[in-house]
Amino acid sequence: MGDGGVGIGGRPAGGAVRHGFQGGLGGLRRVVRVDILSRMSTNPEDHRPESAAAGTPAVRLHPERAEADGEAGKADPVARFLHSAILRRWRGLAESVPAALDADAEAVHNLRVSSRRLRAVMTVFASHLRSNRAKKVGKALRKVTRSAGGAREWDVHGETLARQHAASTREGERAAIEHMLELVDARRAHEHARMTRRLAKIDFARLGRSVRWLSEHLVSTATGQALPQAAWSVLEPLVREALCGMTRLRERERADEMHTQRIAVKRLRYAIELLEPAFADGHARLVARCKQLQEILGRHHDLVVLDELLSRTLARLSEHGRTTLADGLLAPLERLRGERRDQYLEFCGVTTLLDEESFADEVRRGLRLPRRVGQSVSGE
C-alpha cells in the first residue's frame, strides 16, 4: 500500500514531511508529533462545529422515543451505551497516537486495536451507515489500522526474538539471534517511519468530528429496534463465518486458513462487545471464549510468520557460507516450531468444545431468543 493521502478530505502531509525531512527518523517523529497533536483531541465533543449552541446535548435521541418516555433530556440506556462505546474507542485511538509516534510497541498495538473496534461499529450498524459520509469514516479508520499494521508485526517479532536471546546460554545461538534482531530492528524502524508518514497525512481533528457525527447518527437511527432480534441478524453470519471451518482445521495445521479464521473470530468478538445491551445474560462468557480463541490464533500466526523469516534467513546464510550463524539459528528455530506446535494443539483442544451450532445456541440464549430446534445456524 502506498503512502498516499489519508483521512477524510485527503489532508496533505505537514510541511516537513511534504518537502522531505532530513533530520532522521527521530526528527521526523518530533515534527509529525507536534503537527498532529496541535490538531487533535481525545474527545469527539471537542470537535463540535463552531456554530453549535452552547449546552446542546451531545447525544440526540429519536424524537418519538424521547416524547414517549416523557423525558426529552434523559438518554435511553441503549443510546447512552452506544454513545459511550464509540467515545471510548475514539479516546483509545487518539490517546495512543503520541506514544505510537515515539515507537512505543504497546501504543502501536492499542492504536491498531482501537481503530478496528471503531470499524466494528461500521460493520454492526452497516444498514444505518450507507451514506457517502459514513463510507468516508470507514475508509479513514481503515487507513489508520493499516498505518500501524507493519510496525506492530515487527514489534512482535522483535519481542519474541528478545525472549529467545534472554533464555539462551550458548554463544553461537546468542550471536545468531542478535543477527536476526539486527535484521528485525532495521525492518521495524522502516515500518515505524512509514507509519509516521501515514499518520501525518490524517486529519485527526476532522476524523474526531466525523466520529461525533457517527455517534449522533446511530443514536438517532439505530436505537428504536427490537434489540435482541436485530443483534441476532448481525451476529448470525459472523458466527457462521468465524466457526464453520473448525473441524477442517483440526484435521491438520493449515496456517493460511487459520489466519483467515482469526480475523473472522476477531470480528465476531468486537461485534458481541458492541452489542452488550442486547444480552440478558452470558455476554461476558461469550466475549471471553472469542477472546481466548482469537489470542491462540494470533500467537500461532505470529509464530508462523517468524518461522518463515528464520527459515529464509537460515537458507540464505547457508547458501552464502555463513555456517556459524546458520548453525546458531538451528536450535532457536526448533524451539520456535515447538511453540508453534503447542499453539496448534491448544487450538485443537479449545475448538473441540466450540462448534458453530452450540455457540449459536449460546448466543440466542443470551439474547433470550428461542432455540431453533432442528435448524442449523445457516438456516439449512
Question: Residue share in helices?
Answer: over 70%
Order of helices and strands: HHHHHHHHHHHHHH
Question: What is the gyration radius calculated from CA atoms?
Answer: 24 Å
Q: What is the residue-averaged pLDDT? A: 81
> Would you tell me the structural class of the helices and strands?
mainly alpha
Low-confidence stretches: 1-25, 47-74, 376-380
Q: State which percent range the strand residues make up.
A: under 5%
Major sheet attributes: none
Number of strands: 0
Principal-axes geometry comes out as flat
**Number of helical stretches of at least 4 residues:** 14
User: Ends: how far apart?
Assistant: 40 Å
Write down the domain tally: 2
Write up this protein.
This protein has 380 residues and is mostly helical. It has two domains: 24-46 and 75-224, no CATH class; 225-369. The protein has helices at residues 15-18, 24-37, 63-69, 77-101, 105-124, 132-167, 171-200, 204-221, 227-243, 246-251, 255-274, 283-319, 323-352, 356-366. Helix 4 packs antiparallel against helix 5 (105-124) and helix 7 (171-200) packs across helix 13 (323-352). Residues 1-25, 47-74 and 376-380 have low confidence and may be disordered.
